[in-house]
Each structure stands twice: as structure tokens, then as C-alpha cells.
Amino acid sequence: MVCYALSDLRRGTVLLIPDDAGKMPKPVGAIDNSDLGEALKSAFINQSFTDLTSSNSIVGILTSDGLTTIAKDGHILACGEIVDISGAARSKPTGGGRTHAAVAASAYGLAIKVSEDGPISLFKHGDQLIRM
Asked: 0.85 exceeded by the pTM?
């Protein structure tokens, strides 16, 4: 429901639900490396997606740019990460930075991309599974 809400609001995001929480994409940077940015990220790590949704915090996290990684049990593993998109170049996806990030992240699990234009796309193993 959160992805549909972001789509309706025309706010983009990229989420990853990794197959193995011990094997995630290595970040090459962060959206905000300041002390405040790091403190905010650490406040959200290990928080429940459901709890963050109930408090309306999840929208701010997801729309702050960068990849948000969520464990299968619903806990936030990472947020605001910039990932290496060179792996996406092999499949030559069309689209912008979010699409390339989603394709690259999908090597590690299910990647969900919400476009600022509205569509929601799911990727796995570098392939787009569905676009809604």
C-alpha cells in the first residue's frame, strides 16, 4: 500500500528485499554523509516497516533518495545508500537513475521501483518482472 501511495503522490523510491540479508549490495556512497544524516539513518535501522508506516515516518525515509533495504521480516536494514550501478549496464535498462539502481539491486533480491511518473516496477535478477 505504501508503494501505491507514493505512486499516487508522484514520489519516487527504490526498495530492495534481499534474498539473503547477509548478502546485500555494497554501497558506494550515501545520500547524506553528514553527522545528522548518519544519526537519522541509524535511528531507522532495525525499525519495523510496519511501525514506521504507522507513525508516517516511512514516506520520508523512502522519498529521501537512495536505496532502502528491507529484510523479509519487515525491518529496515539500510537506507539512503547509493549503490554501484555498473552491473545494470550489462542488461542495458532504459530509464533514469532509479531504474538503473533497481536493476543493479535486483541481483540481490526483489527490487521495487516507484517512478515519480507513477508506475511501479518490480525487478529480479536484472529483469523487469512487472510494471503497474
From this structure: yes
